[in-house]
Write a sequence for this structure.
C-alpha cells in the first residue's frame, strides 16, 4: 500500500516504489530552443539593478507638528485674529494657528459662547462660523 502507514521509513519506501512504477518520460516532439542571454544579463548584475523600475512612493507630505495644549501666544492670537476671519471652521483654525483639531473645536465653542463669532451652518460633521458684525438697525 502507498502512503503513510506508521513509520517514516515505510513512507519513503512506498514513495520510491511508486516512482519506479511510473513510465519513463517520452522525448519532446519539438526540440528546445537555446535561450539567448538578454542584453542586461550580458552587461552584468550591477548594471541590471540600475535599469530596473524603481517604484516611487508618490507625494510624501511633510509631518505636521501642531500644538496639543494652549500657550499664551496662541491664545492671544486666537482672540485677536480668528474673530476677523470671514470663514471660520475647525480646519481653518487648526491650519492657521498650528493647533490640533480638538483644540480648534474647543476654540470654536468658546468664541461662539462669547459672541465673537456667529454660526452659519452647524451640523455634527462640520461647523461653519463667520465673524460677528455689529448689526445696525
Amino acid at each position: 500500500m502507498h502512503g503513510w502507514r506508521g513509520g517514516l521509513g515505510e513512507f519513503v519506501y512506498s514513495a520510491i516504489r511508486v516512482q519506479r512504477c511510473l513510465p519513463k518520460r517520452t522525448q519532446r516532439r519539438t526540440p528546445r530552443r537555446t535561450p539567448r542571454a538578454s542584453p542586461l544579463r550580458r552587461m552584468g548584475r550591477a548594471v541590471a539593478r540600475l535599469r530596473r523600475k524603481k517604484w516611487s512612493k508618490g507625494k510624501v507630505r511633510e509631518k505636521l507638528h501642531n500644538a496639543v495644549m494652549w500657550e499664551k501666544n496662541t491664545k492671544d492670537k486666537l482672540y485677536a485674529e480668528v474673530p476677523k476671519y470671514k470663514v471660520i471652521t475647525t480646519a481653518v483654525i487648526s491650519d492657521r494657528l498650528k493647533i490640533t483639531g480638538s483644540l480648534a473645536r474647543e476654540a470654536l465653542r468658546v468664541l461662539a459662547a462669547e459672541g465673537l463669532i456667529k454660526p452659519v451652518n452647524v451640523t455634527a460633521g462640520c461647523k461653519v462660523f463667520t465673524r460677528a458684525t455689529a448689526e445696525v438697525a
Q: What stands out?
A: The mean pLDDT is 79. Residues 72-131 form a domain with the Arc Repressor Mutant, subunit A fold (CATH 1.10.10.10). Helices lie at 8-21, 39-43, 45-51, 72-81, 90-97, 101-114.
